[in-house]
Write a structure and sequence with these properties.
The protein is mainly α and 200 residues long. The protein contains five helices and six strands. Helix 1 crosses helix 2.
């Protein structure tokens, strides 16, 4: 049998006891009489409540944060795929009937959107329209882009200023953290769709 003792606040709950006999106590306070009063109305009690609330809510907040990040990551991934599809579609339409940017062979409907600077290695300019041109399958896949010849013909096609700009952007790519924002991708999609509509 649990022995009852007088409700008498001790330690950080000192001065909050009502002196009634009680069996279940915390800091000397009876749980059914004075403990709740101490928690809600004393400075030490409020501090304890705040700590307990934080301890309980932190795992929930962490879980919610992870869920938000997961959803954001999924949205970015979907937008990256959509952006790639739209940009490549535009490039093939824009460069229709133009020779391969690398070897100069005549256009055919198997031409692909080939990158001057590889999309994987230079992610910040993977959707830049001066970095992607119609390219035959042989140069794009078998010759790994045929970079040297690509460079020569790219300069002739876009001119010195744009050519030097894309080289400058590639050099700055090392500072890119490969983190795309939703707004950036949506803006690219919007602009490229507009350009594609203007081709028709």
């Amino acid at each position: 049998m649990i022995k009852e003792k007088k409700c008498k606040g001790t330690g950080i709950a000192k001065g909050y006891g009502c002196a009634k006999p009680t069996a279940f106590r915390v800091y000397g306070l009876g749980k059914m009489c004075c403990y709740a009063n101490w928690l809600l109305n004393s400075e030490n009690g409020k501090i304890k409540v705040a700590k307990l609330s934080h301890k309980v809510s932190k795992p929930r907040l962490d879980l919610e944060q992870k869920e938000r990040e997961k959803k954001q990551g999924s949205r970015i991934k979907a937008l990256l795929n959509t952006t790639k599809t739209i940009v490549h579609s535009y490039i093939r339409e824009r460069d229709k009937y133009k020779p391969c940017i690398s070897c100069g062979c005549a256009w055919n409907d198997t031409f692909e959107a080939g990158h001057f600077y590889k999309a994987f290695t230079y992610p910040s300019i993977k959707f830049h329209l001066d970095n992607i041109f119609g390219q035959c399958i042989f140069c794009n896949r078998r010759l790994d882009g045929n970079f040297d010849n690509y460079s020569l013909r790219l300069h002739d096609r876009i001119g010195t200023e744009r050519y030097e700009n894309i080289i400058k952007l590639a050099k700055k790519d090392k500072q890119f953290l490969n983190v795309w924002e939703v707004e950036e991708l949506e803006e690219i999609i919007k602009n490229v769709k507009k350009l594609k509509n203007e081709l028709n």
